[in-house]
Amino acid sequence: MFNKMNERKGEVKTVRKIVGIIALVVLIIIAIAGYSGYNYVTSALEPMDPESNKEIEVEIPMGSGITLISSILEEKGIIKDARIFKYYTKFKNESAFQAGDYSLTQSMTLDEIIESLKTGRVYREPVFTMTVPEGLTLEQVAGVIQKNTPHKAEDFMKKVTDVAYVEQLMTEYPDLLTENILNENIRHALEGYLYPATYPFYEENPSIEEIVNTMLTSMNTIVSEYTPILEEREMTVHELLTFASLLEEEATAQTDRETIASVFYNRMDIDMPLQTDPTVLYALGSHKDRVLYEDLEVDNPYNTYQNVGLPPGPIAGAGKTSIEAALNPSQTDYLYFLADKEGTNHFAKSYDEHLANIEKYLR
What we know:
50% of the residues lie in helices and 7% in strands. The chain has helices spanning 2-44, 66-75, 82-91, 110-119, 138-148, 153-160, 163-172, 208-224, 227-233, 237-250, 257-269, 277-284, 320-327, 351-361; strands at residues 56-60, 100-104, 128-131, 198-201, 336-339, 345-348. Strands 1-2 form a two-stranded antiparallel ribbon.
């Protein structure tokens, strides 16, 4: 009898062990499945490839619901899982997505994708922005880049003055970068061609090439708007940007760029030197608060006191306002102008009138 009882106790213990092992195995399987599922969902909520900036064309047809949109995004490789994207949008109560053609990237977050589909335009949160003000020389632009990125100013200048690189860019931007920028008298071929603006960047360390391409593309877009006017005026892009750079450098807070443009055009019509101080400073290669008489005699192609007409090329980066003023000058008979101590410009038709303005506003 005792043997039977002991046998039963042994059987019970064995059963308990087996049940315990099975329960443990089940728990482990559940834990692994849960962990794997958690990791999968977490990864599906992250960008597919945070380092990728390659644009992928995505077409969202008219009348598309979130189920179809999710499937399209998964098929294009923009998201990892259509179901998770669908549930994510419903959880955030997002809707009213717009049909259209989009250029999306695998580095976009789900929120950025949703925002793009809601607004009808590609939306991304930049890692940082960089502002390049109007009126900067190429060397000053290099300083801005050094301040905002890991690139050194000298590395930037070495790249943008490399002849092979400039020639490569000329093939990529044939309407913008013409043979004019290779004139032997030009200090820097790309001077004045990098459009001044605030630029968003979507990676921490964009290459110098990416920065240059971004700025050249902006300038190319701006200038292409005025192609008909340029053709009507028989003016080259190089002449436009050179002229606009003079206006940009002469500008003050209250400057009437269109009227200053008329002064320059009027002088050019009678072969009168432009005599603008910023070209002298550019010729000297240094900044001065005051240009001296001896500076005006510097022998340099950029010196518009010694040479008639426009300088060989731009002396700074001009903004859209100066570009438009160069193309649409006021109609005047002015040949002279000066800015008083408050920055207000005073124009004159004759030299005697100009002298009177000097006496009245500066002395």
